[in-house]
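Annex B, item 7. Sequence and C-alpha cells for protein A, then protein B.
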Amino acid sequence: MQRHSGVEVEKGYSQGVGEWDKNGAYREETYGGTTLGEVTGRGGDTHRGLKSRHIQFLALGGAIGTGLFVGSGAILALVGPAPLFMAYLSMMMVVWCVMNNLAEIVTYLPMKGITIPYFVKRYVDSSLAFALGWNYWYAYAILVAAEATAGAILLDYWKTPVPAGAWIAIFMLVILFLNIVAVGIFGEAEFWFASIKFLTIMGLIILGLVIMLGGSPNDQGRLGFRYWNDPGAFTPYLVDGTTGRFLGYWTAFVKAGFAFITSPELIALAAGETIAPRRNIPKAARRFIWRLAIFYGLGSLIIGIIVPSDDTQLLSKDSNASASPFVIGIARAGISGLNHVINAAVLTSAWSAGNAFLFSGSRILYGMALTGDAPSVFGKTSRNGVPYVAVLATWAVGLLAFLNVSNKGAQVFAWFSNISTISGFIAWIVVMITYLRFRSALVYHNLLHTLPFKTPFQPYFTYFVLGVDEFVYSGEGYRCGEWEEGNG
C-alpha cells in the first residue's frame, strides 16, 4: 500500500490522486513517475482532457436522450399521462442517490484508468466486480444500438427514400469518429450536442405551456388538462380499477428507468480523464439532479398535456411510430414547419447519447483490462490516450441496431430498452452496496471527516433507495415480454 495525499492506495493504482498546490493548480501524483499502463503492464494511459463544462454536459447529454424524447411516448400510450409524470419524478429520487454515491467515492479516489468495477473489487468482492464490469459494458454497448435505432425511427419521420440501414450506418460512423480521436475532441462534440439538447428541451417546455394556455394557431383552444379528462389521466394496465391504475404507475416507473439507466455513472467514468476532478466532479453532481428535475419533471408533464394517450402516432406495438411526442404535439397544434426543426434537434439528442454511451462502455472495458478482468488487448491506447481497441469492441456490439432493417423500429427499440434497463437496475444495486461498504470502511478507520464531498441523509437514504431498487428490479420480469404477448 502507498499513501498519497492522505489516502491509502493499492500499489499500482495511485495514478490520478493529487491535490491543488498553493497557486490553485491541480498536481497529480504518479506511481514511481510512471503511467498506470506501465505499472500494470496491461496497456497505455488515458489523458485528462475533459474540462469542467465538458464533464457537466457529458452527464446532461447522457441523461437527456431518447428516453424522454421518444420512449416517453411509449409510456404515455401504454398507461396515460399521470403515471408518466409520477414515474419520472419517482425515478429521479433513485438517480439522485446513485449519483451522490458515485460522486463521493470517485471524488475521494479520482484515479486514472479506474472505473466502477475497481471500487467494487476494493470494497466488496472481486468476483462481483468482474460480473458488474461485464454487465456495465454489455448495457452501454446495447444502449449504443438503442440510440442508433431511435435515430432511424426519428429519420423515418421525413419518409426519405434512403433505407434505414444507411441512416444507421451514418449514425454509427459519426459516433465512432468522435470517440476514436482525442478525448478533448469527444468532450467538445458532446458539449455542443448537449447544448442543442438543452436549448431544445427548454424551448419545448415553454412552447408546451403556450399551447396548454391556448396560444396555438389552430382552433383547439385552451388545452389545460383536457387530455387528462378525455381519454383520461390513467389507462389501467392488465386489470381494471384501482389495481390496474397502480400497475400502470408501477409499469411506468420501471419503464422510466430506461431514460436514466447508466446516466449517473457517466460522471464517475469520466473522472479519470477530467481536469481537477476533486473540484469538477462535485460541481457536476450537485447540478445534475436539479437539471433533471426541470427537464424530466416539466418535460413529462408537458407531453401528457399536449398529446392524448390514444394518439395513433405514439410509439406502441401496433405502430411503427416515427416521431417524438413533442413533435406530435406541435403538429396537432397546427404550428407548421416547427415540427421538422424539433425532430432534427431531437435527432441530435440521440447522437449525443449514443456518443456518450460509446465513451462510457469503452472506458469500462479499458478499466477491466487494466485490472485483469478483461483481455489485455483492450487496455491499449493511441498516442492521444484513446483506448481504441475498447472503443471498436463496444462499437461493434452497437451494430445490432441493424436489426431495425428487418423489424419494426418500435419493436427493436423495445428490445434494447428492456435488456439495457434490467442491466442498469442490477448495476445500481451493486453501486449502492459498494457505497455502503466504502462508507463503513471510512467510519471504521475514523476517516469519514476526510471526504472531500459529502451528501445529506447518508447512509439512511441509500438503504431506502436500495430497497426500492431491488423491488423495481423484481418487477422488471412481469413486463419484459409485454409487447411480445400483446399487452403493451
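Protein B:
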Amino acid sequence: MTTRTILAFDFGTKSIGSAIGQEVTGTANPLKAFKAKDGIPNWDDIEKTIKEWQPDLIVVGLPTDLHGKDLESITPRAKKFANRLHGRFGLPVELQDERLSTTEARADLFSMGGYKALSKGNVDCQSAVVILESWFETQWG
C-alpha cells in the first residue's frame, strides 16, 4: 500500500472543483472550486494549491456519456486541461471516468446539509471527491 497524496479536479467551463486524498486511506476531502473563464482557470490559484498540498499525482475527471463515449463539447477540453496540468507542473496526471459523479455529489451533499449545501462550488468540489474515491476503487479493484 502506498501513501501518495492525490489531487483531483472536476473540470468545468465555469468552475473547476478540487479535492485532496490519501491513497493509504482511499478517502478524499473537498478543497475549493476555482472559477474558470471558458474552461481556463487562474493558473496561479491552481499553482498555490499544488504547492500547498504537494500531490504525487493529479486525477482529472473525464466527462463521458452514459455509454462511456466522449461528449463532443466537453471531453476534449477536460483532456486539454489534464495535459496543461502535466505540462505546467510536471506531475503525473491520470483521467478518471466521471459518469454520474455530479448526481452522486448532489445526493451526498443533500444528505449532509439539505438544499443549502447544494451551492455550485460545493457540488463541484464534492464531484471531485467522488471522482477521486472512484479512482481509488479502480486501483484496488
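Comment on protein B: The helical segments are 43-53, 75-89, 101-113, 120-140.
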